[in-house]
Amino acid sequence: MCGIVGYVGKRNALPVVMDGLRALEYRGYDSVGVALWDGAKIKFEKTIGRVASLEEKIARKPWEGKSAIAHTRWATHGKPSDRNAHPHFDCTKSIFLVHNGIVENFSELREALLREGHNFNSDTDTEILAHLIERPFLAAQKKILLEDAVLEGLRHVNGTFGLAVMSKNDPEKIVVARRGSPIILGIGIGEYIVASDASAVVNITKNVVYLHDNEAAALMPSGVQIFNLPDGKASLSKKILKKQIDTIDWDIAQAQKGGFKHFMQKEIFEGPSALENVLRGRLLDLPSALSGGGGGGIKLGGIAQIKEKLLSAKRLLILACGTSYYAGLIGKYYFEEFAKIPTACEYASEFRYANPAIDSETAVILISQSGETADTLEAMREAKRKSALTLGIVNVVGSTIARESDAGVYNHAGPEIGVASTKAFISQLGALAMLALFLGKEKNTVSPALSEKIVKELKGLPNKMKRVLGKDEEIRKLAEKYLKHKNFLYLGRKYQYPVALEGALKLKEISYRHAEGYASGEMKHGPIALIDENFPTVALAVKDPIYEKTISNIQEIKARNGKVLAVATDGDEKIGKLADDVIFIPQTLEILNPILSVIPLQLFAYHTADLLGLDVDKPRNLAKSVTVE
Ligand code: M6R
Fold this sequence. Notes:
The protein has 629 residues and is an alpha/beta fold. 35% of the residues lie in helices and 22% in strands. The strands form 5 sheets. An 8-stranded antiparallel sheet has the order 3-2-4-1-10-9-11-15, covered by helices on one side. It has a 7-stranded antiparallel sheet with strand order 5-6-7-8-12-13-14, covered by helices on one side. It has a 5-stranded parallel sheet with strand order 19-18-20-21-22, with helices on both faces. Helix 12 links the parallel strand 21 (389-394) and strand 22. Helix 3 (106-115) crosses helix 4 and helix 14 packs parallel to helix 19. The longest helix is centred in the C-terminal third of the chain and has 22 residues, at 448-469. The chain is globular, with a radius of gyration of 26 Å. The structure holds 5-amino-5-deoxy-1-O-phosphono-D-mannitol. Residues 321-324, 368-370, 373, 376, 419-421, 505, 509, 625-626 line the site of 5-amino-5-deoxy-1-O-phosphono-D-mannitol.
C-alpha cells in the first residue's frame, strides 16, 4: 500500500528515486510524485497515473540534486488525482513529505489546523502531517532540526505511518519515521537510501537496517542517526539507537522479469524452485534403517527454540489473508491429519475483532508473503497479548511479522512482485506440510514409513510441477476458448476446496471476471441454481479418496447443461468422457495434490487476463502488500 523511497548522497538523487519508484510500483499505482533538493530549493512534480506518467513530466527537466523523496500511491483518503498525489507540503512549501499509512484522527486534526489558519491543497490525510511538522518550525522561528520538528508533529497523530520528510529549513537531510508501515534503510558508503521494501534498495546497497515501529532516522550525507519516537504524547526526548546492519541475500536480477512478459508469469514458472528453496536443508530423507527409524525427518531451525512449547499446544490457529489464508485452509487439514492437533484457520481481519478465546495453550501460525499485511500483523499482536505462542510463515526476510513472531519458517521464495500471489502459495504449502510432519513425527502420530514416503514425494514434486508448466500453451488455448464467459464457478472438495477458492481469487483479481470458489458438496445447497450453458465450472477432480464424489458433482452440472473444465490426474479416462475439457496433472499423494492442481488455475487466470489485454501485474484497485486495515 503505497511505496516510498528517499535518497541522500553523492549521486544525482533523481534517477535513484525514479528507479526505486519503478521497483515499488507494485505497492500502489494511483498516482506518483517526487521532490528534490537541488542545493537552492525544493523542486517537485506529481501526477495521477503511474511512474511512466511522472517520467514523461520530468523528461525535459534537467534536475539535479543530492537528496530526494518519491512516492507511488494506493489511494485511501481522497480519490486518485494530481492534487492528492504525494509529496504533500505545508502552507509555505518548505516541508515536503511522502507517507504510507493512515492518519486516523485526520478530521479533528484538520479542523484544528484550519482554525489555526492553515490552508490545505488536497483531500488527503497525509497533508495534515506536513502542517503538523510546519508548526514547530514556525514556533521556533525555524531554529529547530527537522527531526525534532517531525517528532513534535507526530506526537499528535493516531494511526499508522511510514514517512519520509525533507525541508528547505534543514536541507540535504531526509527524516523518516515508522509506526505500522515498513521502512528499510540502505546503508551505502557516503550515501543512504530509504524505502518501503528492499526491492528499491538492492540496486544501491545490500547492507540494510530494518526500522522498527516507533523508530525514526535522520539521513545526511555525513551519516545516519537512528532514534526512537518518544513514548506517549508528553515527552519530546529522543533516545539514540544502535542498530544491527543486515545483508540482503538476493539480487536485483531476481526482482526483474528475466524475459517473461509479466512478473506473474515469471513467478508461476518459479513455482518449482520456490518449492525447492523452502525444502532445502530441511528434509532428512535417510532410510529408516540408517536413521534408527527416524527417516523422513524434518529439520526446522527457526522453531528449535520453541519446540517444547509448540508441542504442548492444545490447539493451533492459523491466521492470514487472501491467498495466504487459502494456504492456511490446506494447512489446517495437514495439522489435523498428521499431528492430530485441533486446528482452526481464520481470516486475520475477522479474528482481530472477534474477542477470540485463545490463551497460552494456543499456538498461532501467521502466514504472510510480505510479512507486512496490517490485518495479519495486528492479529499476531492480539494473539501475543493473549499469551499465545506465535509462529510466522513469511517470505520477506526481516519483515515485521518475521521479526515480531516468537519463531518461524522463512519461505525463501525470492521477491514476489506480481500483485497476484503465485509462487508464495506453493512455498507456503511446502512449509505447512513440513511443519505438520515435524509435529506428527515428534508426537508419534505419523509413522516413519509415511513420513519417508511424503518426504520422498516432496523431493520429486518440482519435476512434476515442471510437467504441469509444460502445458502452458494448452492452457492458453483453453483460456481463449472460455474468454467469452464472464462468470465462473470453481469447485473442489477437501484438499481441493481451498485450491478452488484460490483459483477463483486468481481469476477475479487479475481478469475482473466474476469467479466463485465453492466446496463441491455445498453446490447442491444453492449455487447449482446458477448453472446453465453460459456459466462454466472449473472442477478440481484429481484422483484422491473422494474422487467419486467429485465425479457425481460434475454429473450434476452436466445434467443442467453446464460446461466443465476439469483438472484431473494423468490416466483418468472417465473424466475425459464427462468434462468438456480436461487439464491433466501427474499423480501424487493426496496431500500434495494442491501444489500441482493450483498451477493450471494460475496459468488459466494469467492467460485470461493477458488475452483480455489487462495489466496482469498491477490489477485495478489492488496493491501487493495491504498495509492498511
Ligand atoms: O503478503 P500477504 O501474504 O500477507 O498478503 C495477503 C493477501 O493480501 C494476498 O495474498 C492477496 O490476496 C493477493 N493479491 C492474492 O493474489
